[in-house]
Amino acid sequence: MFSDKISDLFTAQVTEWQLAGDNYRLLQKVKTRHFDFGGFEVLVQFNPERMVSSAAKVDSGSVGSRPCFLCQKNRPPLQRGVRFESDFTVLVNPFPIFNRHLTIPSDEHTDQRIRYNFGKMLSLAESLPAYIIFYNGPECGASAPDHFHFQAGNRDLIPLEKDFSSGRFAEIIFSRKGVEVWLWRNYLRGIISLSSAGREPLETMFHMIFERFSALQPGLPEPMMNILTYKTGQSWIVHIIPRKQHRPAQYSAEGKDRLIISPASVDLGGVVITPREEDFRKITTGDLTDIFRQVCWPDDELHHVISDLK
Ligand SMILES: [Zn+2]
Question: Number of C-alpha atoms within 13 angstroms, CB side, residue 279?
């Protein structure tokens, strides 16, 4: 099975590649704070190794002048991969948030765009049922917006998963051709979820939603979004988190108001990463609420955008 090959890759890489071995060992001692929002939790993880990602300069000047770390020719010699289908490679992420954290780049050095790659995401979820697969848009947390890639982490870390299955925050607003379309309420972040056992209708619904947001953000290379997906039983669950902003005001604030938080799929799924200890210590429920509101859409606006797709 494909999953077994990935397990073997992990076992091998944490012994033969010191950077990975050290960082997965450090992760065992990672500090986490739990914030209670009355019915759901947001976790904050103090993870200094993630500074490289959170503070990544992703403007085209900076990206163009560095060697791309996802291209095979620039990867560390000790980083090995396992092929996925004919055009992707699964790698162990050496700067983990999850006990099992993968980076899955395309073979080609091509821009981060989901439009023609959503089906690949479903295939990965099918082949790696123990993982949640996620996509960060080019201005939504991807630290390599110039090289197409997904990431994946072991299931059951991200609170979004259990908060969806509890049925307490998301409700079905309509069903179409075997796809249930859900909208979250009172969860600080507007989220649209899709569930279906049918690949084609799921892809069609995703593209209809994608086009809607595309029309609303016409100046951008693609509508801003984070996407997380996994398979439970026969069904795929897809969480789409449309975005309004790349980084919150706190990211570029000065002095005590500064918080180095660059929200991406994992953060918006409920595990907020703080690479600086001072931010980890001082962050409050008020800050988390404020950051989510700045970068995400409110529930009612999302409802307005998609309700007539029925
Ligand atoms: Zn590249």
Answer: 25
- pLDDT, one tens digit per residue, over 97-143 is 999 999 999 999 999 999 999 999 999 999 999 999 999 999 999 88
Q: Which amino acid type is present at position 76?
A: P
Cα–Cα distance for residue pair 109/124, rounded to 1 Å: 20
Residues ≥6 apart with Cβ < 8 Å to 219: none
Q: Output phi, psi for 76, to 5 deg.
A: -60, 140
Distance 146 CA to ligand 1 centre (A): 7
CB atoms within 10 A of CB 59: 8
Q: At what angle do helices 199-216 and 118-127 cross, to 10 degrees?
A: 140
| Ligand 1 mean position, distance from CA 201 (Å) | 32
Domains of the chain in start order, with CATH, are 2-135+145-151+189-309 (3.30.428.70)
